[in-house]
Amino acid sequence: MLDIDKIRKDFPILETVKYKRPIVYFDNGATTQKPKVVTDTLTNFYLSKNANIHRAVHFLSQESTNAYETARTTIKSFLNASSEKEIIFTSGTTESINLVASSFGERFIFKGDEILISELEHHSNIVPWQFIAEKKGAIIKVIPMNNKGELILDNLDNLLSDKTKIVTLNQVSNSLGTINPVKKIIAAAHKKEIPVLIDGAQSVQHMKVDVQDLDADFFVFSGHKLYGPTGIGVLYGKEKWLEAMPPYKGGGDMIKKVSFEKTTYADLPLKFEAGTANYIDAIGLKSAIDYVQGVGLQNIAEYENDLLKYAEQKLKEVPNIIFYGTSVNKAATISFGIKGVHPTDVGTLLDKLDIAVRTGSHCTQPLMDFYGISGTIRASFAFYNMKEEIDYFTESLKKVVMMLT
Ligand code: PMP
User: Fold this and answer.
1) Pocket flag, ligand 1, residue 202 (CB < 6 Å)
2) Arithmetic mean of pLDDT, 68-97
3) Could you tell me if the CB of 94 is within 6 A of ligand 1?
């Protein structure tokens, strides 16, 4: 289905040998590696096309501006948004959520209102809401999860009260890989005219996302988890919300007219893009999306699902393993612990065997509290990973467990 040998050649870092063999990179949930076409795009742009955007009449600036706005159009199509006005470039998921929490919260959240989040959230989809809740005197409510790491939706109708001003949750859990039924949750919230923000930091790289089909009010993601550069991300917002929200930051490019008495703001999307945008990384992100679409998101989803099922079976061979997050609907992530062993010790020894996994709370401490643990070992796969790597991982893990127990 996928030509993995050819794909792996596009990612030179996968040839890195620190100890004995090429690195087995299973930390894709934290960040993905970059295909050479993305780094070439960045280098070429800096070396031959760079000029600040939206500023000057000279040809370099025009080219830069065109390339930046073309990147916006690519992202519009990638998410199936209805207009470029709905695509705001940010520095990443974290900034996108902070923007919405701060600006939507300023305009729409007041004393006694409720913000509904899920128990599976990353800290970046908890803390910004706590800021605004504290500032406005609002209350955070939580959709609970079960032992399999699935959201419990039986009581959703009651959680969606007439005080709820926004629902915010991820489409895929970074810690467990659970795919949440966001379309169903959005439909339930919309019955009560409550908007929903979807954190797509862990979904856009694994599945096709259509914001109109989901009917999401806001959708956010980071470039670096989608094979693109760091420091660039996206906020999709329905035009009606973005129009109603006040600017988040002030500065150049976000204004229409400035005087000492009064300033008027630029139209969307620039109203939310104060200062010199990270235009080159936006252009790099376009190149990453083109690459991913060349491979095909459907092919990626099928290939990664096959890897996931294979790894779930193989890892059962490891003594004393405890799996966390066993929903049937999962993206390519496996979280586990080893009875009586600290995750960091496992991660440290695996590193010596050329295997990169993530250990710890994965920025989801409330989720760890649910299980009564401090952290897990997480293997998160990408479409450049292979079954041979999973075999090596399983055998290495068995050795490590033998040493530590
Ligand atoms: N949400 C989820 C589900 C994530 O996995 C992450 C990154 N681990 C974030 C938000 C934050 O993304 P970033 O650090 O790129 O802003």
Assistant:
1) yes
2) 98
3) yes
List alpha helices for 226-265, DSSP H: 239-244
Residue 363 is among the residues annotated as catalytic for this protein:
yes
Rounded to whole angstroms, the Cα distance separating 365 from 369 reads 6
- Cα-to-centroid distance, 224 and ligand 1 (Å): 10
CA dist 278 and 50 (Å) reads 12
Say which of 153, 363, 368, 404 is annotated catalytic: 363
Domain ranges in the chain with CATH number 3.90.1150.10? 4-28+297-404
Please tell me the CATH code under which domain 49-293 is placed: 3.40.640.10
Which residue's CA is minimally distant from atom 6 of ligand 1?
A: 201
Give the CATH H-level superfamily of domain 4-28+297-404.
Aspartate Aminotransferase, domain 1 (3.90.1150.10)
* Average pLDDT value for residue range 189-207: 98
The amino acid present at 352, given as its one-letter code, is K
Q: Is the pLDDT of residue 300 over 90?
A: yes
Query: Which part of the chain has CATH 3.40.640.10?
Result: 49-293
Decide the pairing of beta strands 164-170 and 114-118.
parallel
Atom of ligand 1 nearest to the CA of 92: 16
What spacing in Å lies between the alpha carbon of 201 and ligand 1's midpoint? 5
Instruction: State whether the beta carbon of 124 lies less than 6 angstroms from ligand 1.
Output: yes
Q: 93-115 burial, b if ≥16 CB within 10 A, otherwise e?
A: bbbbbbbbbbbbbeebbeeebbb
